[in-house]
Amino acid sequence: MLRLRTGFLAVLLMVGCQPLYKAERNYEVYEKDQEFFQPLLNGSTDDVDAKATVVLEDQSYPIQLQLYQDGRFFYHLKRLGDGWGTWSHKNGFLHLYAERKLFVMNLEIHSIQQDGNALSLEFSDRFGPKFLRLQKTLK
What we know:
By secondary structure, the protein is mainly β. The protein is about 15% helix and about 45% strand. An eight-stranded antiparallel β-barrel has the order 2-3-4-5-6-7-8-9.
């Protein structure tokens, strides 16, 4: 009986450790040098309402990002509010990092066209991986 209980608990533990959500990109990503991302950068972090704001096209997950030349970024999430983080260019992508009280935000901005300017934002939330297309707008 003890072996049966132990076996049941082991199976339950293995099933419980499986990822709940699995998602794959529906597009290719392309490594770009830092110059490619230059048009996304705003001048000074002194003015949050700077020239360019990167906005997600998919309004079901509304997020706004403003990237600044000093390596910082400002974000606004509809349900979580505003905050600041840092960004860096690594391996042909922009890596964004911000800490909140309850969790850490790790985001990546990729080019999704070899010769174009289309961008995507990738991150994971409590429901799993998200792959969202970004649209650059001017405020």
